């Protein structure tokens, strides 16, 4: 018998003009057809409210990664880039951590990174990134909204993009958590 998987979510982040916004939905799906929770919080503030982080994947794995990442932030005195590289290096090389099934999206007011267990530390050229099952939809919407003049407030851009993802992706809902750093 195959293991039943938890599916979800959509996390979207944008950094622009000294401001960072990360948002995510609240759905946790068990197997292919059962919504177990509608209001999970998958975005949080870290390191004295100076860093935002969101996760997609296994909740227990992501909570472990949040804790490790916050430790790396403390060790690097809040240097997001150093902490991201240190976590990815440990995640890739540690046998137990290598089994964790999650992705992290982390940001401060200058940087935005996607972190994975394969050692990837990706900083997108346009400072817009998304992860999770609806990530491609949210990313496409965010890039389209970003081209509109005058520019839309980042919180609105993230909210509207996540709503579009929720309309398309069955593992994403409209219960959104959006965090902002100025």
UniProtKB/TrEMBL annotation:
InterPro entries: ATP-dep_Prtase_HsIV_su, Ntn_hydrolases_N, Proteasome_sua/b, Proteasome_suB-type. One of its GO terms (molecular function) is metal ion binding. Na(+) binds at residues 166, 169, 172. It comes from the Bacteria. One of its GO terms (cellular component) is HslUV protease complex. Transmembrane segments: none annotated. Its EC number is 3.4.25.2. It catalyses: ATP-dependent cleavage of peptide bonds with broad specificity. The keyword Kinase does not apply. Allosterically activated by HslU binding. One of its GO terms (biological process) is proteolysis involved in protein catabolic process. Belongs to the peptidase T1B family. HslV subfamily. Keywords: Allosteric enzyme, Cytoplasm, Hydrolase, Metal-binding, Protease, Sodium, Threonine protease. This is ATP-dependent protease subunit HslV. Protease subunit of a proteasome-like degradation complex believed to be a general protein degrading machinery. It is found in: Cytoplasm. It comes from Sulfobacillus thermosulfidooxidans (strain DSM 9293 / VKM B-1269 / AT-1). A double ring-shaped homohexamer of HslV is capped on each side by a ring-shaped HslU homohexamer. The assembly of the HslU/HslV complex is dependent on binding of ATP. The gene is hslV. The lineage of its organism: Bacteria, Bacillati, Bacillota, Clostridia, Eubacteriales. The active site is at residue 9. The keyword Iron-sulfur does not apply.
